[in-house]
């Protein structure tokens, strides 16, 4: 690809010579290879990220468009935070996906299907979107806000597609709504009026199609008079807090990941917590950590649980290793995702803990599947599930004491 062709394809105003800073920086790549060395999926790419940037500069359009490199990008930003030139490498990978769609290049078939599914059904699973609260059906006593929905509320819990439709993740929203109810939080969900946040479209190179979904979701949240939107899904959180503001006015709304909200709740002493005698390690989700800067809140929640021992992995915080479940890579090549998960699970095992806690339903699913496929004896659980277990333990202790006293 010549520089001019690239810029035209990416819809930049050449007549005005408006060239975005990130593109100028890409052309300044010094080929140090830091991006390739830190990329969790580089081993499976036909060209490493470093090689891809050089091919772009050399104008090798056909080779770039037929490469599978950008389709295997987990969008984890591991390369981007380490680039000595500050090049927006992850954003460039997404831009290349968009370019491939526009040029009619070969796109992984399942990604095309994903795009069609989200646009037709408003979720990633293809289920009837009206059934978004199916995860709540076996709750013993569904809180108000779930069944029935509150017509007005200052807090909206935006559940997300994975937690709403994938049984392995049902326990996450189940735990969160019960914790919120016990803490006396007057929240609501949007039920069948909640649509996919659009983030899966964005990472698939179809970001221009997410605006309608974003506007719908924002209108529904404003319609209940909410001031705060809480997410258990880091991808939804990232979409609302980083991508939505680029499309529309989100003023007057506060966006928080569930762990941030719960860390606040715990400081108020509204939740009795019982001991959970367990050694765990925490996995930083890429969308929550590197991409949103939320590292402390999940750890604050875990450290508030009596009896819980938190052990950090060799790679944590901004250096945390991707689980392999991001960027639609599981759709492009499932085996790559399983392989990356195995490497992360090896770090889990090195801590001596047999339970890995995350704050992302997709990370939980990916690590569970990686453990199953690679026969690794590690359990994956979400922070809110562990917190709910602590609340239940406190309840049991109180009941036992009452029984003895009575």
- The shape, in one word, is globular
Cα-atom Rg, whole angstroms? 22 Å
Number of strands: 8
* CATH C-level class of the largest domain: Alpha Beta
Summarize the structure.
The chain folds into 3 domains: about 5-105, Orthogonal Bundle (Fumarate Reductase Iron-sulfur Protein, Chain B, domain 2); about 110-265, Rossmann fold (3-Layer(aba) Sandwich), CATH 3.40.50; about 275-395, Rossmann fold, CATH 3.40.50.1860. It is built from 19 helices and 8 strands. The chain has helices spanning about 5-10, 20-25, 35-40, 50-55, 60-65, 80, 90-100, 110-120, 160-165, 170-180, 200-205, 210-225, 235-245, 260-265, 295-305, 330, 335-350, 360-375, 385-405; strands at about 155-160, 185-190, 230, 255, 280, 310, 355-360, 380.
Describe this structure in words.
With 406 residues, this protein is of the alpha/beta class. It has three domains: 3-107, Fumarate Reductase Iron-sulfur Protein, Chain B, domain 2 (Orthogonal Bundle); 110-266, Rossmann fold; 273-393, Rossmann fold (3-Layer(aba) Sandwich). The chain is 47% helix and 8% strand. It is built from 19 helices and eight strands. The protein has helices spanning 3-9, 21-27, 34-38, 49-57, 61-65, 78-82, 89-102, 109-121, 161-165, 171-182, 199-203, 211-223, 234-247, 258-267, 296-303, 329-332, 334-350, 361-373, 383-405, and strands at 155-158, 187-188, 228-231, 254-257, 278-282, 308-311, 355-358, 379-382. The strands form two sheets. The chain has a four-stranded parallel sheet, with helices on both faces. A four-stranded parallel sheet has the order 6-5-7-8, sandwiched between helices. The longest helix has 23 residues, at 383-405. The model is unreliable at 1-18 (pLDDT under 50).
């Amino acid at each position: 690809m010549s520089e001019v062709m690239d810029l035209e394809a990416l819809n930049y105003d050449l007549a005005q010579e408006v060239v975005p800073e990130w593109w100028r920086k890409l052309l300044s790549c010094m080929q140090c290879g830091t991006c390739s060395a830190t990329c969790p999926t580089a081993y499976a790419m036909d060209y490493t990220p470093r090689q891809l940037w050089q091919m772009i500069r050399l104008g090798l359009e056909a080779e770039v468009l037929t490469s599978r490199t950008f389709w295997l990008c987990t969008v984890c930003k591991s390369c981007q935070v380490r680039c000595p030139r500050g090049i927006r490498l992850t954003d460039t990978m997404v831009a290349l996906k968009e370019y491939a769609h526009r040029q009619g290049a070969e796109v992984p078939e399942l990604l095309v299907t994903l795009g069609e599914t989200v646009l037709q059904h408003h979720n990633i699973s293809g289920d009837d979107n009206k059934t978004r609260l199916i995860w709540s059906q076996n709750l013993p006593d569904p809180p108000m806000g779930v069944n029935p929905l509150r017509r007005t509320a200052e807090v909206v819990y935006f559940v997300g597609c994975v937690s709403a439709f994938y049984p392995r993740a049902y326990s996450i929203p189940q735990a969160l709504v019960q914790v919120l109810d016990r803490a006396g939080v007057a929240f609501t969900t949007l039920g069948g009026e909640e649509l996919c946040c659009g983030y899966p479209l964005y990472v698939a190179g179809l970001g221009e199609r997410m605006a309608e979904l974003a506007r719908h979701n924002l209108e529904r949240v404003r319609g209940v008079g909410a001031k705060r939107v809480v997410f258990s899904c880091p991808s939804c959180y990232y979409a609302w807090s980083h991508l939505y503001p680029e499309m529309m006015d989100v003023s007057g709304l506060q966006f928080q990941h569930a762990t941030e909200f719960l860390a606040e709740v715990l400081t108020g002493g509204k939740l009795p917590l019982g001991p959970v005698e367990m050694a765990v390690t925490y996995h930083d989700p890429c969308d929550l950590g590197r991409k949103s800067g939320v590292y402390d809140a999940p750890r604050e929640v875990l450290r508030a649980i009596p009896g819980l021992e938190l052990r950090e992995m060799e790679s944590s915080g901004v250096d945390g290793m991707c689980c392999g479940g991001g960027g639609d890579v599981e759709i492009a090549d499932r085996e790559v995702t399983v392989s990356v998960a195995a490497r992360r699970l090896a770090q889990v095992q090195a801590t001596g803990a047999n339970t890995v806690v995350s704050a992302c339903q997709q990370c939980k699913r990916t690590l569970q599947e990686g453990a199953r496929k690679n026969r690794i004896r590690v359990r994956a659980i979400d922070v809110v599930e562990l917190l709910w277990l602590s609340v239940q333990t406190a309840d049991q202790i109180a009941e036992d004491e009452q029984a003895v006293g009575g």
